[in-house]
Please model this.
Amino acid sequence: MKPPAPHSLRVDAHHHVWQLRRGDYGWLTPDLALIHRDFSLDDLRPQLALAQIGATVLVQAAPTVAETEFLLAVARGSGGLVRGVVGWADFAAPDAIPTLARLARDPLLKSVRPMLQDLPDERWLLRAEVARTLAALPRLGLRFDALVKLRELPALLETLARFPELAVVVDHGAKPDIAASAWEPWASMIAEVATHPKARCKLSGLITEAGPAWTIDTLRRYVDHLLTCFGPLRLMWGSDWPVVELGGGYRRWLAATVALLAPLDAADRAAILGGTAQRFYGLE
Model:
Protein backbone atom coordinates (compact mmCIF):
# COMPACT_ATOMS: atom_id res chain seq x y z
CA MET A 1 0.00 0.00 0.00
CA LYS A 2 1.19 3.50 -0.75
CA PRO A 3 1.59 5.78 2.28
CA PRO A 4 -0.84 8.67 2.69
CA ALA A 5 0.15 12.04 1.33
CA PRO A 6 2.19 14.19 3.74
CA HIS A 7 0.09 15.86 6.47
CA SER A 8 -3.07 14.05 5.34
CA LEU A 9 -5.43 12.38 7.78
CA ARG A 10 -6.94 9.08 6.74
CA VAL A 11 -10.59 8.74 7.68
CA ASP A 12 -12.81 5.70 7.72
CA ALA A 13 -16.02 7.52 6.79
CA HIS A 14 -18.41 4.64 7.44
CA HIS A 15 -18.33 1.99 10.14
CA HIS A 16 -20.57 0.63 12.86
CA VAL A 17 -20.42 -0.80 16.37
CA TRP A 18 -23.21 -2.72 18.03
CA GLN A 19 -24.27 -4.65 21.11
CA LEU A 20 -26.78 -7.40 20.41
CA ARG A 21 -28.34 -7.16 23.87
CA ARG A 22 -29.61 -3.70 22.96
CA GLY A 23 -32.23 -5.53 20.90
CA ASP A 24 -32.97 -3.00 18.13
CA TYR A 25 -30.98 -4.44 15.21
CA GLY A 26 -33.90 -6.12 13.46
CA TRP A 27 -31.89 -6.91 10.31
CA LEU A 28 -29.02 -8.56 12.22
CA THR A 29 -30.19 -12.15 12.34
CA PRO A 30 -28.30 -15.33 13.34
CA ASP A 31 -27.96 -16.42 9.72
CA LEU A 32 -25.41 -13.60 9.35
CA ALA A 33 -23.07 -15.69 11.45
CA LEU A 34 -19.85 -13.75 10.76
CA ILE A 35 -21.27 -10.54 12.21
CA HIS A 36 -23.94 -11.79 14.62
CA ARG A 37 -22.01 -10.79 17.74
CA ASP A 38 -20.98 -7.65 19.55
CA PHE A 39 -18.48 -5.36 17.82
CA SER A 40 -16.74 -2.53 19.65
CA LEU A 41 -14.16 0.14 18.88
CA ASP A 42 -11.57 -2.03 20.58
CA ASP A 43 -12.24 -4.69 17.93
CA LEU A 44 -11.74 -2.10 15.19
CA ARG A 45 -8.65 -0.29 16.46
CA PRO A 46 -6.08 -2.89 15.24
CA GLN A 47 -7.47 -2.61 11.72
CA LEU A 48 -7.30 1.18 11.84
CA ALA A 49 -3.71 1.12 13.07
CA LEU A 50 -2.60 -1.14 10.22
CA ALA A 51 -4.39 1.12 7.73
CA GLN A 52 -2.92 4.31 9.24
CA ILE A 53 -6.42 5.66 9.85
CA GLY A 54 -6.61 8.40 12.45
CA ALA A 55 -10.30 9.30 12.53
CA THR A 56 -13.66 7.68 11.85
CA VAL A 57 -17.34 8.35 11.28
CA LEU A 58 -19.64 6.05 13.24
CA VAL A 59 -22.91 5.23 11.49
CA GLN A 60 -26.25 4.05 12.84
CA ALA A 61 -27.33 0.45 12.35
CA ALA A 62 -30.69 0.50 14.14
CA PRO A 63 -33.76 2.70 13.53
CA THR A 64 -33.99 4.06 17.07
CA VAL A 65 -33.07 7.29 18.83
CA ALA A 66 -31.74 5.14 21.66
CA GLU A 67 -29.07 3.73 19.36
CA THR A 68 -28.09 7.23 18.24
CA GLU A 69 -27.60 8.20 21.89
CA PHE A 70 -25.55 5.03 22.39
CA LEU A 71 -23.33 5.91 19.41
CA LEU A 72 -22.80 9.46 20.66
CA ALA A 73 -21.69 8.04 24.01
CA VAL A 74 -19.28 5.68 22.22
CA ALA A 75 -17.89 8.62 20.24
CA ARG A 76 -17.43 10.77 23.34
CA GLY A 77 -15.50 7.94 24.98
CA SER A 78 -13.31 7.18 21.95
CA GLY A 79 -10.42 9.46 22.85
CA GLY A 80 -10.89 11.54 19.71
CA LEU A 81 -10.98 8.62 17.28
CA VAL A 82 -14.67 8.94 16.36
CA ARG A 83 -15.06 12.50 15.13
CA GLY A 84 -18.56 12.23 13.73
CA VAL A 85 -21.75 10.23 14.23
CA VAL A 86 -24.46 9.53 11.67
CA GLY A 87 -27.62 9.00 13.70
CA TRP A 88 -31.28 8.23 13.18
CA ALA A 89 -34.65 9.83 13.86
CA ASP A 90 -38.13 9.13 12.54
CA PHE A 91 -38.43 11.86 9.91
CA ALA A 92 -42.18 11.26 9.66
CA ALA A 93 -42.88 11.69 13.39
CA PRO A 94 -44.60 14.89 14.61
CA ASP A 95 -41.68 15.55 16.95
CA ALA A 96 -38.94 14.77 14.42
CA ILE A 97 -37.53 18.30 14.26
CA PRO A 98 -37.42 18.87 18.06
CA THR A 99 -35.83 15.43 18.47
CA LEU A 100 -33.13 16.23 15.93
CA ALA A 101 -32.58 19.67 17.46
CA ARG A 102 -31.98 18.02 20.83
CA LEU A 103 -29.61 15.42 19.40
CA ALA A 104 -27.76 18.06 17.35
CA ARG A 105 -26.77 19.88 20.52
CA ASP A 106 -24.02 17.27 20.67
CA PRO A 107 -21.44 18.54 18.14
CA LEU A 108 -20.45 14.97 17.34
CA LEU A 109 -23.76 14.41 15.54
CA LYS A 110 -22.97 15.29 11.94
CA SER A 111 -25.64 13.57 9.85
CA VAL A 112 -28.79 11.48 9.99
CA ARG A 113 -29.78 8.37 8.09
CA PRO A 114 -33.23 6.88 7.67
CA MET A 115 -32.88 3.23 6.65
CA LEU A 116 -34.55 3.89 3.30
CA GLN A 117 -33.58 0.56 1.73
CA ASP A 118 -35.62 -1.27 4.40
CA LEU A 119 -38.81 0.79 4.13
CA PRO A 120 -41.74 -0.65 2.15
CA ASP A 121 -42.49 2.69 0.45
CA GLU A 122 -39.81 3.45 -2.12
CA ARG A 123 -41.09 7.05 -2.31
CA TRP A 124 -41.12 7.62 1.45
CA LEU A 125 -38.70 10.55 1.07
CA LEU A 126 -41.37 12.47 -0.83
CA ARG A 127 -44.01 12.38 1.90
CA ALA A 128 -45.00 15.84 3.15
CA GLU A 129 -44.09 15.12 6.77
CA VAL A 130 -40.69 13.77 5.73
CA ALA A 131 -40.07 16.78 3.49
CA ARG A 132 -40.59 19.12 6.46
CA THR A 133 -37.83 17.31 8.34
CA LEU A 134 -35.49 17.29 5.34
CA ALA A 135 -35.98 21.04 4.94
CA ALA A 136 -34.95 21.56 8.58
CA LEU A 137 -31.64 19.68 8.38
CA PRO A 138 -29.47 22.53 7.01
CA ARG A 139 -30.55 24.95 9.74
CA LEU A 140 -29.83 22.26 12.34
CA GLY A 141 -26.32 21.88 10.92
CA LEU A 142 -27.01 18.31 9.85
CA ARG A 143 -26.26 16.41 6.68
CA PHE A 144 -28.20 13.53 5.13
CA ASP A 145 -26.78 10.02 4.56
CA ALA A 146 -28.84 8.32 1.85
CA LEU A 147 -28.95 4.56 2.39
CA VAL A 148 -30.49 3.69 -0.96
CA LYS A 149 -30.54 1.04 -3.62
CA LEU A 150 -31.68 1.38 -7.21
CA ARG A 151 -35.33 1.25 -6.09
CA GLU A 152 -35.03 4.46 -4.05
CA LEU A 153 -32.89 6.47 -6.48
CA PRO A 154 -35.82 8.16 -8.31
CA ALA A 155 -37.16 9.56 -5.01
CA LEU A 156 -33.67 10.64 -4.00
CA LEU A 157 -33.25 12.51 -7.29
CA GLU A 158 -36.54 14.33 -6.71
CA THR A 159 -35.41 15.16 -3.18
CA LEU A 160 -32.11 16.60 -4.40
CA ALA A 161 -34.02 18.83 -6.85
CA ARG A 162 -36.47 20.00 -4.17
CA PHE A 163 -33.81 20.71 -1.53
CA PRO A 164 -30.72 22.09 -3.28
CA GLU A 165 -29.20 23.26 0.03
CA LEU A 166 -29.31 19.78 1.56
CA ALA A 167 -25.85 18.23 1.91
CA VAL A 168 -26.26 14.57 0.88
CA VAL A 169 -23.91 11.63 0.72
CA VAL A 170 -25.00 8.42 -1.01
CA ASP A 171 -23.88 5.44 1.05
CA HIS A 172 -22.21 2.48 -0.68
CA GLY A 173 -22.54 3.95 -4.16
CA ALA A 174 -26.28 3.14 -3.99
CA LYS A 175 -25.41 -0.57 -3.82
CA PRO A 176 -25.14 -1.61 -7.48
CA ASP A 177 -25.79 -5.31 -8.08
CA ILE A 178 -22.20 -6.09 -8.92
CA ALA A 179 -22.63 -9.83 -8.44
CA ALA A 180 -25.07 -9.87 -11.36
CA SER A 181 -22.90 -7.49 -13.42
CA ALA A 182 -25.88 -5.09 -13.45
CA TRP A 183 -25.11 -1.69 -14.95
CA GLU A 184 -28.12 0.26 -16.20
CA PRO A 185 -30.14 2.05 -14.97
CA TRP A 186 -27.84 2.33 -11.93
CA ALA A 187 -25.00 3.93 -13.92
CA SER A 188 -27.18 6.65 -15.44
CA MET A 189 -29.02 7.38 -12.22
CA ILE A 190 -25.92 7.69 -10.02
CA ALA A 191 -24.45 9.98 -12.69
CA GLU A 192 -27.57 12.14 -12.40
CA VAL A 193 -27.18 12.24 -8.61
CA ALA A 194 -23.65 13.55 -9.14
CA THR A 195 -24.93 16.53 -11.15
CA HIS A 196 -26.27 18.02 -7.91
CA PRO A 197 -23.50 20.18 -6.39
CA LYS A 198 -24.25 19.23 -2.77
CA ALA A 199 -24.20 15.48 -3.46
CA ARG A 200 -21.32 13.28 -2.35
CA CYS A 201 -20.80 9.52 -2.49
CA LYS A 202 -19.17 6.87 -0.33
CA LEU A 203 -16.79 4.36 -1.81
CA SER A 204 -17.95 1.68 0.60
CA GLY A 205 -20.02 -1.46 0.79
CA LEU A 206 -19.16 -2.61 -2.73
CA ILE A 207 -17.58 -5.95 -1.92
CA THR A 208 -20.68 -7.15 -0.10
CA GLU A 209 -22.61 -6.46 -3.32
CA ALA A 210 -20.01 -8.21 -5.48
CA GLY A 211 -20.44 -11.83 -4.38
CA PRO A 212 -17.87 -14.12 -2.74
CA ALA A 213 -15.72 -14.58 -5.86
CA TRP A 214 -15.06 -10.87 -6.44
CA THR A 215 -11.70 -9.60 -7.66
CA ILE A 216 -10.30 -6.14 -8.20
CA ASP A 217 -11.36 -6.41 -11.82
CA THR A 218 -14.92 -7.18 -10.69
CA LEU A 219 -15.02 -3.83 -8.91
CA ARG A 220 -13.04 -1.71 -11.35
CA ARG A 221 -15.86 -0.66 -13.69
CA TYR A 222 -18.04 0.49 -10.79
CA VAL A 223 -15.29 2.34 -8.94
CA ASP A 224 -14.12 4.04 -12.14
CA HIS A 225 -17.69 5.15 -12.85
CA LEU A 226 -18.08 6.66 -9.38
CA LEU A 227 -14.75 8.43 -9.84
CA THR A 228 -15.84 9.79 -13.20
CA CYS A 229 -19.19 10.98 -11.84
CA PHE A 230 -18.14 12.50 -8.52
CA GLY A 231 -14.40 13.07 -8.79
CA PRO A 232 -12.00 12.61 -5.86
CA LEU A 233 -13.15 15.78 -4.05
CA ARG A 234 -16.70 14.40 -3.75
CA LEU A 235 -15.90 10.74 -3.06
CA MET A 236 -15.00 9.36 0.36
CA TRP A 237 -13.79 5.95 1.48
CA GLY A 238 -15.48 3.89 4.16
CA SER A 239 -14.97 0.35 5.37
CA ASP A 240 -18.57 -0.52 6.27
CA TRP A 241 -17.04 -2.57 9.10
CA PRO A 242 -18.11 -5.01 10.45
CA VAL A 243 -20.52 -5.70 7.55
CA VAL A 244 -17.42 -5.79 5.32
CA GLU A 245 -16.51 -9.10 6.99
CA LEU A 246 -19.29 -10.68 4.91
CA GLY A 247 -17.42 -9.74 1.74
CA GLY A 248 -13.83 -10.57 2.61
CA GLY A 249 -12.86 -8.25 5.43
CA TYR A 250 -11.44 -4.83 6.20
CA ARG A 251 -7.89 -5.38 4.99
CA ARG A 252 -8.93 -6.96 1.71
CA TRP A 253 -11.32 -4.11 0.93
CA LEU A 254 -8.75 -1.46 1.80
CA ALA A 255 -6.07 -3.20 -0.29
CA ALA A 256 -8.47 -3.38 -3.24
CA THR A 257 -9.30 0.32 -2.85
CA VAL A 258 -5.64 1.32 -2.80
CA ALA A 259 -5.00 -0.76 -5.93
CA LEU A 260 -8.00 0.77 -7.72
CA LEU A 261 -6.94 4.29 -6.79
CA ALA A 262 -3.27 3.76 -7.69
CA PRO A 263 -3.53 5.62 -11.06
CA LEU A 264 -4.58 8.81 -9.23
CA ASP A 265 -2.07 11.32 -7.95
CA ALA A 266 -1.30 11.59 -4.23
CA ALA A 267 -3.61 14.55 -3.65
CA ASP A 268 -6.60 12.78 -5.20
CA ARG A 269 -5.96 9.60 -3.21
CA ALA A 270 -5.66 11.64 -0.04
CA ALA A 271 -8.99 13.32 -0.75
CA ILE A 272 -10.82 10.01 -1.14
CA LEU A 273 -9.08 8.42 1.84
CA GLY A 274 -9.72 11.33 4.18
CA GLY A 275 -10.05 14.87 2.90
CA THR A 276 -13.52 14.59 1.39
CA ALA A 277 -14.96 13.13 4.59
CA GLN A 278 -13.28 15.82 6.69
CA ARG A 279 -14.81 18.58 4.61
CA PHE A 280 -18.25 17.04 4.17
CA TYR A 281 -18.82 16.10 7.79
CA GLY A 282 -16.95 19.05 9.25
CA LEU A 283 -14.71 16.81 11.31
CA GLU A 284 -12.69 18.58 13.98
